[in-house]
Amino acid sequence: MEKQSNEALEIRKMTIEDVSQVYKIENKSFTNSSWSLEAFYHELEKNEFAHYFVVSLGDEIIAYCGIWLVIDQAQITTISVDQSYRCNGVGQLLLEYVMNFASATCTTMSLEVRVENKAARHIYEKAGFTYGGVRRNYYGDGEDAKVMWVSLKNV
């Protein structure tokens, strides 16, 4: 993260104005199964269960995460860090933030992750997520997803 020293990371709620930057990260990160612009707008404007967050460095959004809070369950719907900022702890920081946010009303959190995405699985395991099963052919390209869970009771 080579930026001016007076710029600090900020985590905040995603706004409609953030969607275009988030969408660019989404397309670079998930070439075979990226979300559409319309999907992000729908999540922010119409989905009462959705909560989306961004990490910014100055005016630049470098990561985002979406979660659904339904009764006492939290589900990570999407999360990504811009490729230029990976391996610097940004993903871990954002994950811990959304886990803490969800822990106010939820007891567990789950997510799906590509079986082959070892880097992401490592971050989730570091945060306490454990293997819960496999969803066969979950992604549009036919790849399976690992389902992972974590208790939010001690977050």
From TrEMBL:
Gene3D superfamilies: 3.40.630.30. Residues 9-153 form the N-acetyltransferase domain. It is found in: Cytoplasm. It holds the Pfam family Acetyltransf_1. SUPFAM superfamilies: Acyl-CoA N-acyltransferases (Nat). PROSITE patterns: GNAT. The keyword Plastid does not apply. One of its GO terms (cellular component) is ribosome. It catalyses: N-terminal L-alanyl-[ribosomal protein bS18] + acetyl-CoA = N-terminal N(alpha)-acetyl-L-alanyl-[ribosomal protein bS18] + CoA + H(+). Its main location: cytoplasm. Its EC number is 2.3.1.266. Transmembrane segments: none annotated. Keywords: Acyltransferase, Cytoplasm, Ribonucleoprotein, Ribosomal protein, Transferase. It comes from the Bacteria. Acetylates the N-terminal alanine of ribosomal protein bS18. Belongs to the acetyltransferase family. RimI subfamily. This is [Ribosomal protein bS18]-alanine N-acetyltransferase.
